[in-house]
Amino acid sequence: MKIPGLKMRPPRDGSPQDNYSKWGWYAMAVIALIWIVYNLMDGK
């Protein structure tokens, strides 16, 4: 059993698992960006 998002660059074989991993990385990137912007605005 593979864990989605475990590898930095998962194989793009078009499987649902690869799709979940891709969206997982997108979600983490968006959340991190929002968190950084929020902290920068809150600090000033």
Give a description of the structure:
This protein is mainly alpha-helical and 44 residues long. It has a domain at 19-44. The protein contains one helix and no strands. The chain is rod-shaped, with a radius of gyration of 14 Å.
Which features characterize this protein?
about 0% strand; mainly alpha; 1 helix; about 65% helix; about 45 residues
Secondary-structure element order, N to C: H
Shape: rod-shaped
Mean pLDDT: 74
Helix/strand structural class: mainly alpha
Helical run tally: 1
Quaternary assembly: single chain
Outline of the structure:
This protein has 1 helix and no strands. With 44 residues, it is mainly alpha-helical. Keywords: Membrane, Transmembrane, Transmembrane helix.
Layout of helices and strands:
Layout (H helix, E strand, L loop, with lengths): L15 H28 L1
